[in-house]
Design goal:
The protein has 2 domains: about 5-115 and about 280-295, Nucleotidyltransferase, domain 5 (2-Layer Sandwich), CATH 3.30.420; about 125-275, ATPase, nucleotide binding domain (Nucleotidyltransferase, domain 5, 2-Layer Sandwich). It starts with a strand and ends with a helix. The protein has helices at about 35-55, 95-100, 110-120, 185, 190-195, 210-230, 245-255, 285-295; strands at about 5-10, 15-20, 25-30, 60-65, 80, 90, 105-110, 130-135, 140-145, 150, 235, 275. It is α/β, with parallel strands linked by helices and about 300 residues long. Helix 1 runs parallel beside helix 2 (about 95-100), helix 3 (about 110-120) crosses helix 8 (about 285-295) and helix 6 packs across helix 7 (about 245-255). It is globular, with a radius of gyration of 19 Å. Strands 3-2-1-4-7 form a 5-stranded mixed beta sheet, sandwiched between helices. Strands 10-9-8-11-12 form a 5-stranded mixed beta sheet, sandwiched between helices. The protein binds adenosine-5'-diphosphate and zinc ion (ZN). The site of zinc ion has 7 residues, from helix 4.
Length: about 300
């Protein structure tokens, strides 16, 4: 049986796993994201130890925070590029693993990885076009379009989407260092905390924060629906742990689209159209295993 390695490379932690799928994860490790040398070194030591215990890996997958270079012909393929995270700008994350482990390495964004896992094992099985959006420390989206991960020019940056903000209703100018009030600047976990003075997880369900949050998400999702025509949208990330947000987002999307797009998914079946991840917070690291599988 093929044995894959996977790394969900996040700005806070690297989650590493060895296995072949959700029912067969043989070993995991969580490594704090410090310097590239230390973090990559620890992850490498984990996989080398697993190879001694379990046998050789067939391939490795890395689902990474970004922006990343994904073009296979680029000399910087496998690099984290223009990140604001100190010490990680222009870092080769694929090379050290490929050289030390001698296996093919699949590489994609963290959200494309999560999308791939949801496609293989979760809430997007059988679909060929869908979006996976995470609303957490940042906001990012991955998409499968006609059966292929969407890369294009670079890769989608769905969190940095511009949307209308009514300064009367929401005087908060936004927290994105690049754009101020883009979607991430308005609706990420840290943006909510900055606007309301306490962590999103501490805001009660009846707090006005949630109607505003649902409105921003509904505006963004409606635009993804109009541009990509997804068959489903999966909303993950820490902020979406607030399950009461889902019905608000469903109503918001219907209001924004205003019955223009005629599809049952957008009317009576909208609760099955905009959904939480079936794999929960394991989507990221399972996505890395799925990337390894694709690379093998
Ligand atoms: P990351 O984006 O770093 O992978 P998460 O998806 O968990 O991690 O996102 C972290 C953000 O989500 C934080 O800003 C945190 O305040 C927020 N968050 C975490 N849990 C909850 C919760 N239960 N309800 C609302 N917000 C949450
Ligand atoms: Zn932005």
């Amino acid at each position: 049986m093929a044995l894959w390695g996977g790394i969900e490379a996040g700005g806070t932690k690297f989650v590493c796993a060895v296995g072949s799928g959700p029912e067969d994860v043989r070993a995991t490790a969580r490594i704090a994201t410090t310097t590239p040398e230390a973090t990559v070194g620890e992850a490498l030591a984990f996989f080398q130890a697993q190879q001694r215990a379990l046998g050789p890996l067939t391939a490795l997958g890395i689902a990474s925070f970004g922006p990343v270079e994904l073009h296979p012909e680029s000399p910087r393929h496998g690099f984290i590029t223009s990140t604001a995270k100190p010490g990680w700008r222009d870092t080769d994350v694929v090379g050290p693993f490929r050289r030390a482990l001698g296996v093919p390495v699949g590489f994609d964004t963290d959200v494309n990885g999560a999308a791939l896992a949801e496609h293989r094992w979760g809430a997007a099985q059988g679909l060929d076009t869908f979006v996976y959006l995470t609303v957490g420390t940042g906001i990012g989206g991955g998409a499968l379009v006609n059966g292929r991960m969407l890369h294009g020019l670079l890769h989608p940056e769905m969190g940095h989407f511009r949307l209308p903000r009514d300064p009367q209703a929401d005087p908060f100018p936004g927290a994105c260092p690049f754009h101020g009030d883009c979607l991430e600047g308005l609706a990420s976990g840290p943006a909510m905390e900055k606007r309301w003075g306490r962590p999103a997880g501490e805001l009660p369900a009846e707090h006005p924060a949630w109607a505003l949050q649902a409105n921003y998400l509904a505006l963004a999702l409606s635009s993804y629906i109009c541009t990509l025509s997804p068959q489903r949208i999966i909303l993950g990330g820490g902020v979406m742990a607030q399950r009461h947000l889902f019905p608000l987002v469903h109503a918001g999307v219907r209001r924004v689209l205003n019955d223009y797009i005629q599809a049952p998914a957008l009317t009576e079946r909208i609760a099955e159209y905009i959904v939480p991840p079936a794999l929960g917070d394991r989507a990221g690291v399972l996505g890395a295993l799925a990337l390894a599988r694709a690379a093998a």
